[in-house]
Write a structure and sequence with these properties.
A: mainly alpha; 2 domains; two-stranded antiparallel ribbon; 73% helix; globular; B: mainly alpha; MetI-like fold; 13 helices; 0% strand
Amino acid sequence: MRKGIGWSVERRASVSRTERWWLFLTPSAVVLGLVMLYPLSYAVYLSLFDDDLGTGSHAFIGWANYASLLTDQRFWTSLLQTALIAVSAVGLEFCLGLMVAYGLYLLSFGARTLNLLLFLPHIITPVVAGLFLRWIFMGQWGLLSSVLIGLGIFPPDWLGTPGWARVTVVLADSWQFTPFIILVLYAGLNTVDQSQIEAGRIDGAGGWALLFRIMVPAIKPLILFVLAIRLMDAFRMFDIIYVLTAGGPGTATETLTMYDYALAFHLLQIGKASALGVLILAILALLTGIMIAVVYRRERGAF
Amino acid sequence: MPPSRPLQLALLAGLSLFTAATLTPVVWALLTSIKLPVDAFAVPPKLVFSPTFAFHYQVWVEKEFWRFLLNSIVISVSTVCLSVSIGTMAAFGLTRLRSRASRGVLFGLLAMRMFPHILLAIPFFVLANRLGLRNTYTGMVLALTAINQPFTIWLMRSFFHDVPEELYDAAVIDGCSPWQVFMRVALPIVRPGLWVTALFGLLLAYNEFLFALVLTGPDTKTLPVAIAEYGAEDINYWSLSAAAAIGIMLPIVAFMTVMQRHLVRGLSFGAVKG
């Protein structure tokens, strides 16, 4: 990729390059192999068994776990729920994040301080964030409800009705991850070539046109990258839901990960839970594949 | 060139309002933790009250949350030491490999970063039980190290990537062994990057919940698990858990404040260059 000083240097470097440098990768490779790839393949192996810690059975059943999941209403509901929650959350985070990042970009003083303060929710332990938000949305004496009652409005049971519980989960995820988007987009906006912006301004572009016609296209690879990463993470969301609604009421906010957790650690059906885990991986791989294909077609070299 | 003064003020007001709204849950929890329950449960919320730190003392000392803090510290510091040392070596190795090989490895790492954690938690649980690694620091540190590897390597690589390759080539020609190139040439240059990476690794390990929930036990329970499990058996449950939550947040806030310069630079750097 980079040119050496001269032919001889490049050649000599490339000779030594093929040999011993691999050694630097070995410690990491050993850890990843033993602690990541081996357990992963073990999970795939387990998914072919009727492995139940409750009854103690361990019998080979082939694809039966997968078959039973694919006809399992709870699996499809949780898949739909996960997609719904992830897409709404990331959508909200991106819109808010872009607005705030652009606001900070335009602000000529105080942007750093605000940025730092805004970053706080993102670094808080997710479990703690879930608790913080629980105390806002609690039915009885949560802040939101008591403020509404003070205003004479009768509040809904935020965490106790399926619809509102989903909204709450989306808001909770946005609370934690909008700061991340703000920070990344703010940094991105600051890298946009000033001469491009000046040219736009001279052509008479106003604030919004500058943002959407010039700056957003300029940082499009960054935006796609951030969206892809966020979508993947939102798809695996667990901590906040665990604390906030525990998947409830009923299974109204049960995502795939929550369902899998319940299968493995409440129902102790290790085999079926492993199968669900493999399915989640397959879904994520499919999503990633689609996103990479889209990104690569549009923007060569975004990754 | 900068927008007009009234616009600036409107922007500042709007953004400050947004920031205030964002921080409300934190402030509310803080208030709950220093109010007596009588005041905390008042509707509408009471804003004038006499603060008490009794609940902070109770939950950290009498309820022994300091034990969980100790567990969290031991686990996250060990994880970072292990993870950053081997990850930095790997990242350095990658910058020296042919670009096709290193690209393959990097894509593999990205794929690993995408792994659903629950899929790993299940075999971790089964294997840790079998190997006697449940409720030990070792099991937890190994799990977190593996999880943090992809991120660590990617971030460190972005720092190594900015070092001109000629520098390494020159060192090789001067007779440095690969190890010497790494220790004497590469590491000193990327030292700020090391700190940033370590900081993020520390944060990830300190905040991690799912593996801790599955792999830790009474002796090794970390703070996130402890507070999630902390039940409503106490009369002052709300005040106590709010005090614990605020306490868990404090080290993070302190650390971020100290490291803010590196943090903002590091994250934007890592993410933009990612």
